[in-house]
Amino acid sequence: MMTNPWHSVNPGSHVPNVVNAIIEIPKGCRAKYELDKESGLLKLDRVLYSSVYYPANYGFIPQSYCDDHDPLDILILSQIECVPMCIIEAKVIGVMQMIDGGEADDKIIAVAANDMSVNYINDISELPPHFTAEMRHFFEEYKRLENKTVQVEEFQNKAVAERIIMESFDAYQKMFKQK
User: Fold this and answer.
1) Is 54 flagged in the annotation as binding?
2) Among residues 53, 57, 84, 60, which one has the least CA distance to residue 74?
3) Is 67 annotated in some ligand binding site?
4) Distance between CA atoms of 90 and 49, rounded to whole angstroms?
5) Are 93 and 115 spatial neighbours (Cβ–Cβ below 8 Å)?
6) pLDDT tens digits, 8-31
7) Is position 73 annotated in a ligand binding site?
8) Which Gene3D superfamilies does the record associate with it (predicted)?
């Protein structure tokens, strides 16, 4: 029997400061892969309509649950492109809050804990201003040719991100464990 990484991977022993994250989409990719919730495999949702590329490795935090009925999204900065379904220890540094299709769709921002080129960063305020501008631009633009709008609200610090992570773990427990 195949296990589903959303439910079977431990979120980590140092949450919410450091979390295990499962990569769906490598940095620099135009493919929009998503976890198939039933099988636990990755499926190609679509090729992005715009000629833009994911600015960071993109995935989710296992055993989390959000208002969009999916696990909590995470963007992990690293000097390398990580392969899909790789588990990465991710040091949380902030969150990008956005509205996608009228629903809150927060994106945790983290650095790869085992990448010396970025793991010294402790808070989103330490990132170059252009990087957060690039991330905002990507998420505001990548659905435009699909006639969909995404509104990036604000980038928030590590403390806000950690609170959102803990709330997503509580929501997961309510949704899946207390039945």
Assistant:
1) no
2) 60
3) no
4) 29
5) no
6) 999 999 999 999 999 999 999 999
7) yes
8) Inorganic pyrophosphatase (3.90.80.10)
Its sign, for the CA torsion 69, 31, 139, 147, is: negative
What is the three-state SS of the chain?
Answer: CCCCHHHHCCCCCCCCCEEEEEEEECCCCCEEEEECCCCCCEEEEEECCCCCCCCCEEEECCCCCCCCCCCCEEEEECCCCCCCCCEEEEEEEEEEEEEECCEECCEEEEEECCCCCCCCCCCHHHCCHHHHHHHHHHHHHCCHHHCCCEEEEEEECHHHHHHHHHHHHHHHHHHHHCC
> Cα 23 to the chain's mean position, in Å?
8
Residues 62, 20 contacting (CB under 8 angstroms): yes
Q: Does the pTM of the predicted model rise above 0.85?
A: yes
Distance CA 15, CA 162 (A): 8
Is 58 annotated to bind ligand?
Answer: yes
Can you tell me the distance from the alpha carbon of 136 to that of 130, in angstroms, rounded to the nearest whole number? 10
List the chain residues with pLDDT less than 50: none
pLDDT confidence of residue 7: 96
Residue 83 in tokens: 């392969």
Is 36 annotated in some ligand binding site? no
